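Protocol step 4 of 6: structure prediction from sequence.
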Amino acid sequence: MTTAYACMIFAAFLPLIAAGLSKFGPADEASAKTGQYDNHYPRQWLAKQTGLRARAYNAQANTFEALPFFYAGVIVAVLMQAPQARIDTLAVIFIVARLAYLACYLANWAALRSIVWFIGFASVVALFFQGSI
């Protein structure tokens, strides 16, 4: 298994980390009033959350949204027979950027979050052009 393929599998777990934090992470004063996670009505319960739990939920959604683009980028780079080391490097950059993105989202560092989001996005865009370099 290549590093890029391992990164694809690892990327699938990133939304689950954010989901766990959104449902079971520390509550601020406002979200503590909604009580424990309600699995019977998860969307309604999550809609009432604030602070870290709300940010974790939003990070989960964004992380899910990034997966198809990343997967497609790796697959296209492989099909275009790009050098495997380059594909692996760009995949690792994406994972590191997404981990930093998650940390920035949870910490409420909006400007830095946007920067690391762009780095992850740029690494995926670069994957699409590796066969022509």
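Step 5 (inspection) to follow. The CA atoms of residues 97 and 119 lie 6 Å apart.
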